[in-house]
Amino acid sequence: MAREPDPYDLLGLDSLLDETERMMRDSVRRFVADRVLPDIGRWFEEAHFPVELAKELGSLGLLGMHLEGYGCAGTSATAYGLACQELEAGDSSVRSFASVQGSLVMYAIHRYGTEEQKQAWLPAMAAGEAIGCFGLTEADAGSDPAGMRTTARRDGDDWVLDGSKMWITNGGIADVAVVWAQTDEIGDPTGIRGFLVPTDASGFTANPIHQKLSLRASVTSELVLDGVRVPAGAQLPAAEGLAGPLRCLNEARLGIVFGAAGAARACYESALEYATTREQFGRQIGGFQLQQGKLVDMLQRVQRSQLVALHLGRRKDEGTLRPEQVSFGKLHNVNDALEVARTARQVLGGNGITLEYPVMRHANNLESLVTYEGTADVHTLVLGRAVTGLNAFA
């Protein structure tokens, strides 16, 4: 006897996961249901990130979970992606915290750091007892990080850093910042190096960015470095040139690919529940053709995004994932998630703009995902170069 179709997984994508992946995903989903969803509307409205979540995420093994050793869980990239999907179904702020902590800061230390640096930071960060931020973007150097103006100069055995970084997630709550700076002539990408900068260092300031309409439950800061002195051992020795930070960004973007699918799913599920319970003209609005068309469009976009994310996760685990494929996933999944959020908001009518429902909150957050860790325009040009062999950046 044929089973009834599952309106939340019409394609049966759950069958593509193994038992371990499903158990991990379900545990993260329960955590989000218990610890995030009851309060996220208030956190968003109050622009508050509950720092205590860091240790809770650490206790679940979600911080740097795809890294090996040093207290990290050593899971697959796909499992990491599924965790990001569930965290972002709660809110982008929670997924962003975990992504920056694990895929930017911890990954940078794990890949480019010394054994001493790894021992000093990774176990505490995996447990959520220490928090990190990643300082690459500047006010005048966003899509073109090679144009950064932050500098690091030698002074005896020390390095002295001067400059500023903008739009830095976790900046105001971090214990350590991975700061990328020019060590040679400004504009020469080969002179870029990474440094581990304790946030209590003299001359280091993290200024909160206020009046955000997106990622409100996330800590976003401007970092100012005014003659910050760090020892020679603060440099990440294996990172040379712009390839270092860009590789970190590519590592983190897989989490966004999965995360955007989670936000889209949350919006679709909210719209479906609303359409099958809300009555107008004496019947459920889900029984009207226009609303069914919206629901079907959302379902297709959600499941397509989940397929893209899962495929890229598998390729990452196989060691065959290419950077332009990550660009494809981020561009596709974030754009589709935005369309799902906008459509779901229409289904919910006036209720769609309130924090009682998740839709407008996700829509606002997704507006940040469109431009951070590579704008939609930049990823489009990456794909254009891949299919034509012609470089539109030059």
The DSSP helix count reads: 11
**What's the β-strand tally?**
9
Question: How large is the radius of gyration?
Answer: 21 Å
| Structural classification | alpha+beta
Which strand order do you get reading across the main beta sheet? 2-3-7-6
Major sheet, described briefly? 4 strands, antiparallel
In the residues, how many domains can be counted? 3
Top-tier CATH class of the largest domain = Mainly Alpha
Query: Shape, please?
Result: globular
**Spatial gap, N to C terminus:** 60 Å
- The amount of beta strand, in percent, is 5-15%
For this structure, the CATH topology of the largest domain is Butyryl-CoA Dehydrogenase, subunit A, domain 3
Considering the protein shown, what is the CATH homologous superfamily of the largest domain? Butyryl-CoA Dehydrogenase, subunit A, domain 3
**Element order: H for helix, E for strand:** HHHHHHEEEEEEEHEEHHHH
Low-confidence stretches: none
- Range of helix content: 40-55%
How confident overall, as mean pLDDT?
Answer: 95
Family: Belongs to the acyl-CoA dehydrogenase family.
Pfam families: Acyl-CoA_dh_1 (PF00441), Acyl-CoA_dh_M (PF02770), Acyl-CoA_dh_N (PF02771)
GO molecular function, one term: glutaryl-CoA dehydrogenase activity
Catalytic activity: glutaryl-CoA + oxidized [electron-transfer flavoprotein] + 2 H(+) = (2E)-butenoyl-CoA + reduced [electron-transfer flavoprotein] + CO2
